[in-house]
Please model this.
Amino acid sequence: MGQISLPKKGMAREDVLNTLKSFKSDDLKWHDGQLFGLIYETGTDLEELIKEANTLFLIENGLNPTAFPSLVKMETEVVSMVTNLSGGGEEAVGNLTTGGTESIFMALKAARDWAREKYPKIKQPEMVVPVSAHPAWNKAAHYLGIKIVMTPIREDFRADVTAMEAAITKNTIILGATAVTYPHGMVDPVEKIGALAQKRSLWLHVDACLGGLMLPFLRHLGQDIPAYDFGIPGVMSLSADIHKYAYTPKGVSAVLYRNRDLRKFQIYAYADWPGGVYATPCLAGGRPGGMIAAAWAVFHYLGEEGFVALAQKAKAATDNLIAGINAIPQLYVLGRPNATVFAFTSNAINIYELAVKMADCGWHIEAQQLPPSLHMTVSPVHLAVAEKFLDDLQRVVPQVPRADTSDLSEQAAMYAMLSTMPDRRMAKDFAVEYINNLYRIS
Ligand SMILES: *Cc1c(COP(=O)(O)O)cnc(C)c1O
Model:
């Protein structure tokens, strides 16, 4: 414990860079598709273009739109292209944010403030969201003072609309749906949820953070993709992450609204500051120009054909992986995922121990819970390594302890314990303590 102080003398430039490079030695290796999550890798030269585009606008600040009109132009063009891909009409508008969490946050903030005007009698607003929704919803609800009511999902891992309807109270203002859920890779029945939202005059936000830049291209390839976007009349807002299946580094996502009258509720302005009249579209104040340029560069470099070709690779990799996993007798994939994200599990072996064994082979797979499973977000780069992954999987499965054994590695045992803890508050306290301990000099 303690602090470190600023070095008295600066380091040589070379030493700074070499030291930074050395820090990477403990990080997960991702470049050749070792990760199934966190990083969305194409395995092409796209990365070089993104770096150059980012560098061109690295220093420019998106805070003041009159200082750098280039950033406003690029942002509105990227947003317009995402809007087009999401069935938004002439009236639809949006902004770029720093990520899916901020996009969801802004949409729910807009919805809350819309409801304050539309339903002034509601003092304790609620929203109804399926349990498969991303924790960004819970986080935003927590920050924004909205009560979140979580409803169960069906056996096919999609939202249960009957349960959602039953959860609506006189305080409900928002319904939530996800187009490609993170845990299981499903598109919720958004059409039905949209009809319910219309019937009850509620705001429906569709979280297409994961699917927004994959589903349109899978549809283009002839795949049967259920409706999920602004084509459904009840959809008021939609989030789509660019830093996922548009392959940019972290720091850019789109939040879209059916029209400007709805987006108005997103914008914050303060007119009485001695520093001037202050107004921002989203949560961030100063905003990095580089990520806006990176997004613009990817959209123009790939074009529709490029996106479709990458989607085809990621889908082919997904199909190979799903078929290979289902062919291993001890394993099976959960439900029938719609896109390039899925989960698999086992009734026979301890799935967390399988993740540990696969990590020993260099594969990083995230562990999930309720029910226990392993998460796979598949990228275009995985097409080249799917076979190797399946070979390793087939080889290690027989070495994994049975599901009911106590003979687990520490890591697997920890996960098993946390995921089966009946009192979820203990798991929550554990997580807070973990984070609180992590970010300090030790
Ligand atoms: C990734 C994701 C989010 C959150 O996005 P961040 O960019 O991590 O903030 C929200 N919803 C879904 C479905 C996601 O996959």
Notes: The pocket of pyridoxal-5'-phosphate is lined by residues 99-101, 104, 134, 136, 178, 182, 207, 209-210, 241, 253 (CB under 6 Å).
